[in-house]
Amino acid sequence: MGQKIKLEDTEYDADSLSDQGKKIFLLLKFATSRVEELNNMQALLQRAKNSYIESLKQEVLSSKAGLLLKND
Questions:
Q1: Which residue blocks in 1-72 are alpha helix, DSSP H?
Q2: Is the model's pLDDT at 67 over the cut of 90?
Q3: pLDDT in tens, 3-37
Q4: Of 2, 33, 1, 32, whose CA–CA distance to 17 is shortest?
Q5: Residue 17, Cβ neighbours under 10 Å: how many?
Q6: What is the reported pTM?
């Protein structure tokens, strides 16, 4: 079964594309995949950043208070 392409609410069969159309379709799939990968990486890095901020806050509070305020 061939792949389908949906453009502006109309579905097309990828097998019916010209050679140039098939190349463009592959490039579109690649770009879409990379965008998804980069979005996932951004989410991962944002979580890491938030964790580092919390750790830094704990470190600053611990040094000001002279106490160890770890949650672990």
A1: 19-65
A2: no
A3: 888 889 989 898 899 999 999 999 999 999 999 99
A4: 2
A5: 16
A6: 0.67
